[in-house]
Design goal:
Blueprint: H1 15-24, H2 26-29, H3 42-51, H4 56-66, H5 69-85, H6 90-99, H7 104-120, H8 124-140, H9 144-161, H10 164-180, H11 185-199, H12 212-231, H13 235-252, H14 255-275, H15 281-299, H16 302-315, H17 318-331, H18 335-348, H19 353-370, H20 373-390, H21 393-411, H22 419-424, H23 428-439, H24 449-463, H25 466-474, H26 491-497, E1 502-508, E2 524-529, E3 532-537, H27 545-559, H28 566-576, H29 578-582, E4 590-594, E5 621-624, H30 628-636, E6 646-650, H31 661-666, H32 674-687, E7 692-695, H33 701-704, E8 713-717, E9 720-721, E10 731-733, E11 744-745, H34 747-750, E12 759-762, E13 771-773, E14 777-779, H35 781-787, E15 792-796, E16 800-801, H36 802-817, H37 822-835, E17 846-850, H38 868-882, E18 890-891
Parallel strand pairs: 1-4, 4-5, 6-7, 6-8, 8-12, 12-15
Antiparallel strand pairs: 1-2, 2-3, 9-10, 10-11, 13-14, 15-17, 16-18
Length: 892
């Protein structure tokens, strides 16, 4: 079976459909899409050509003249006549190919000829531009092998030329090709980011004053960037890019491209409001859709009109909805567009499920005819929902599983990188929907309740940390018993693995209703103990993603200033934990939490049942894990952590590390950390012989990367820097240590460390924070250490003050040395710091991720006398006092 006969694709207006918008506008924008009021007359173009036939402007004049419908035929006729007289003129060949864009065969031949003529004259930029036009025409014809050859040629020519504009056009072409093939979207994004750095470099022409060529390149660059940002789940960035697109094209008077840009912006706004549906979400999207339609109709942009009609058909009342879907079908010429129109109409036909099914059957046939995985995905997405209205539960579930397989098929088209996680983020809502649909039937009165809950749990696990699991498999960093194909954890497996005093709390955070008013999955808590599982619906308003995200952000932000909001801590407890914890056996002392969405960044230890009540950290040991599947594997793994010794890298000579000015301005505190030295010495004191401390200029990136780490614990007492928009640029700061090293240990370098079963302690600021990807978790430094093979990571949610870090980790390692597990040691250390009167900022933001049950010093440090611990505390206090006069620093 051909892969395109199977379901697959992405949600909403997918990358391939956006690329279709670009192709639809190619007749207007292939080479010089500027639409101006002063269109030249054909006769004027002839005079200009006669005066200087070799100039680009002389030939482009015919293209500009041909934009006026009344002049188009005459412009083509005159240009053809001149080309017969000047058959070797590269620019006339190039622009005639653009004029004849609707005639795919002739336009392709002319673009190919123009590329050869440009090459013969050494016009590298012209050759690359001709390759761009040729690529677009070949793609319309489905000539994929020839497309690849054209891309390779353009890249080769551009790089040999060292012409910045040629390189920018080639990078945009490479990016477009990856978009079109739905492959390796993060690489596509990096390519177009390179183009952006060239086109928008400091000192370049300001917007509105650029040449036609530079404007065209900037416009195409922004189009790709906005498209990629939304498909990678970076909605804030996508919104800014799409708005810049709209402003750029509107200012230039390029109304055709403006319609395309507004379609981008409409899609971003819709995705934002599906993610966080506000009360006025429907009105905002309707307003944006009507604006898009008005501009698209005026510019006669069919694909932008099609998309606007789809959205308006979905959101308007019945009579108006029918008109919009009819217009959608009338405008749609390509089978892919026809399929999407019918898929959206099926979503709207809630009154008659059988009518929806008929529309979806038609849509599926059209999507297969178009060989479009994106269009096929649209069909299966809607079919999953219709099946629950029409079919028996068993059949509906089977069709739903097929729909998930469709999602995963397109996801697997991505290269095995973090791009799979980013692309997947827009699909997580369908897993939420299906799991929530099942959990609605998991009430105690249903005799199949346990089975339904187990299936829902499996659906959630199928969504969680999928890319992380795959990356660990690819790196052979999973336990030897793990299969190559993910075998997701079941409730029974989790129950059997839990200790009698332990509970696993698995969250789902999704809206109860989307902006259309349909069920959206809801917010749920599943509590699993050795004795069974209980399901709790979280109906408190604060548990809604729309309110939860900003509340957690504000709540966590308070701790950076040593604040503590007991009312918010209690409100979050009531919304998220009260029902689940109230029924727990009093003997439960340990919690394993599987967060969802913003809960990955919530300091659970600081929550409390009432504003004046003790925080959760006084009652429970707490471990967070990206998925129950990985937790189960780590828990059952026999892989040793290579002994009790620790390697500590503390207070590197940060001035010898190359830190870009942009990062220094964002995090100006990247200076020496005197308390980190005290912290490092405390690790050695508590763990004893065999541990090693590398201080200052000796704490090098080169040493860490020199070979397998022969220590059970890897402790970083240094700075870290994280970026939400570019997670790959995050780093742990070290000293370089060797030529070619910059002292910035990035995620792509971390994952190459061999950390089989190690425990990693990141005593650095915000090492557990980062970009939240729905379903996958947080793209942070801790995740990179898991990819390197670590089973346990201790990390921080916010900037940790230098002296606070030293005090907390002194207690932490003292308890590790007594033979406690990582989670128990942190729990005890947090209690110690609370007893000292330290504010929550000093202890609540340090969390254990992964397998908190690891005991690095089984039975405690041998030969440790009973008075050693008090003596160590006294010595630590004396050491800390020495530094009280020094400036307190934050580990940024």
């Amino acid at each position: 079976m051909n892969r395109f006969d199977r379901p697959g694709g992405r949600q909403g207006l997918p990358v391939a459909f956006l690329f279709g918008l670009l192709l639809a506008g190619a007749a207007h924008s292939a080479s010089s899409p500027l639409r101006t009021a002063g269109v030249p007359a054909v006769a004027d173009c002839e005079r200009r050509f006669a005066a200087d036939p070799e100039a680009e402007a002389s030939s482009s004049c015919f293209y500009e003249a041909g934009k006026e419908p009344s002049q188009q035929a005459e412009a083509i006729r005159r240009a053809e006549g001149l080309l017969r007289l000047h058959p070797g003129n590269p620019w006339l060949t190039y622009f005639l190919g653009s004029l004849l864009w609707a005639d795919t065969g002739r336009s392709s031949d002319l673009s190919a000829a123009a590329a050869d003529l440009m090459a013969a004259r050494g016009l590298a930029l012209g050759e690359v531009r001709a390759c761009w036009n040729l690529y677009l025409q070949l793609h319309k014809q489905g000539r994929q092998k020839e497309e690849a050859a054209v891309v390779s040629r353009a890249v080769r020519v551009a790089e040999a030329s060292d012409d910045p504009l040629a390189i920018a056009r080639a990078r945009i072409l490479e990016s477009t090709d990856l978009i079109n093939r739905s492959q390796d979207l993060p690489r596509s994004y990096r390519l177009v980011l390179e183009a952006r750095k060239i086109l928008f470099a400091k000192g370049s022409a300001p917007l509105g004053a650029e040449s036609t060529l530079v404007y065209t390149l900037r416009r195409d660059c922004l189009l790709n960037m906005a498209s990629l940002a939304v498909n990678l789940g970076r909605l804030n960035e996508a919104h800014d890019l799409a708005q810049t697109e709209v402003d750029l094209t509107a200012r230039r008077g390029d109304h055709y491209a403006e319609a395309f840009a507004r379609a981008h912006l409409l899609r971003v706004v819709r995705e934002e409001l599906y993610l966080l549906p506000t009360p006025d979400a429907r009105r905002k999207v309707l307003e944006q859709a009507r604006q898009t339609l008005a501009v698209a109709e005026a510019a006669r942009h069919p694909s932008a009109q099609i998309f606007a009609h789809q959205i308006l058909g979905l959101l308007t009342d019945d009579a108006e909805s029918e008109i919009h879907f009819q217009r959608c079908r009338d405008l749609a010429v390509l089978p892919r567009d026809q399929s999407v129109c019918r898929s959206m109409e099926a979503r709207r036909s809630t009154a008659d499920p059988h009518d929806s099914l008929r529309l979806l059957d038609e849509a599926l046939d059209l999507a297969k005819q178009a060989r479009s995985p994106d269009a096929i995905a649209n069909v299966w997405r809607e079919r999953m929902r219709v099946s629950w209205r029409l079919a028996p539960p068993e059949q509906a579930l089977q069709e739903s599983i097929t729909a998930l397989e469709a999602i995963e098929l397109v996801r697997d088209l991505q290269a095995p990188t973090e791009g799979r996680a980013e692309v997947f983020t827009l699909w997580a809502s369908h897993y939420h929907w299906l799991a929530g649909r099942l959990l609605q039937n998991a009430g105690a009165a249903d005799p199949r309740a346990h089975n339904v809950a187990d299936i829902a749990f499996g659906i959630q696990e199928r969504m969680r940390a999928r890319a992380l699991i795959e990356s660990l498999t690819a790196a052979n960093a999973r336990p030897s018993t793990a299969t190559q194909t993910p075998d997701f954890a079941s409730l029974d497996q989790v129950r059997q693995a839990l200790a009698p005093d332990e509970a696993l709390l698995s969250f789902q955070i999704a809206p109860w209703q989307d902006m259309v008013g349909d069920f959206a999955g809801g917010a749920w808590l599943m509590v699993v103990t050795r004795n069974g599982a209980a399901v709790h619906a979280l109906h408190a308003p604060l548990a809604e993603r729309t309110r939860l995200r900003p509340t957690v952000e504000v709540f966590s932000g308070l701790f950076t200033g040593n604040g503590d909001d007991g009312d918010t801590a209690a409100a979050l407890y009531r919304a998220l934990l009260a029902d689940g914890l109230s029924d727990l056996d009093p003997g439960i002392q340990r919690l394993v939490i599987v967060p969802d969405d913003v809960l990955h960044l919530l300091p659970f230890a600081a929550l409390r049942p009432a504003p004046e009540a003790p925080p959760l950290a006084t009652r429970y040991e707490i471990t967070l894990t990206p998925s129950a599947t990985l937790w189960l594997e780590w828990r059952q793994s026999t892989q040793a952590a290579s002994g009790t010794a620790a390697l500590v890298l503390a207070d590197p000579a940060s001035r010898s590390a190359v830190v870009p000015a942009s990062i220094r301005s964002a995090a100006p505190g990247l200076g020496p950390l005197p308390w980190a030295q005290v912290e490092g010495k405390a690790v050695l004191r508590h763990l004893g012989a065999g541990s090693r401390l590398l201080l200052g200029a000796d704490a090098t990136e080169a040493y860490l990367k020199s070979g397998p780490v022969p220590y059970g614990i890897l402790h970083f007492a240094t700075h870290a820097w994280t970026s939400d928009n570019e997670p790959e640029s995050s780093f742990v700061l070290l000293a370089p240590g060797a030529p070619g090293e910059d002292g910035r240990l990035h995620p792509n370098e971390i994952v190459k460390l061999k950390l089989r079963g190690r425990i990693v302690v990141l005593s650095a600021c915000s090492s557990a924070s980062g970009e939240i990807l729905r379903g996958e978790g947080v793209m942070n430094l801790a995740r990179a250490f898991f990819q390197a093979g670590a089973h346990t990571v201790v990390a921080t949610l916010w900037p940790l003050r230098d002296d606070h870090g030293a005090a907390l980790f002194d207690r932490f390692y003292a308890h590790l040395g007594e033979g406690l597990s990582v989670a128990a040691a942190l729990h005890a250390a947090q209690q110690d710091r609370m007893a000292d009167g330290a504010p929550p900022a000093a202890w609540a933001g340090v969390i254990v991720l992964g397998d908190g049950d690891r005991v690095p010093v089984p039975g405690g440090r041998p030969g440790l006398p009973r008075f050693a611990f008090p003596a160590a505390l006294a010595l630590s206090g004396l050491s800390l006092a020495v530094f009280l006069a020094r400036r307190r620093r934050v580990r940024a």
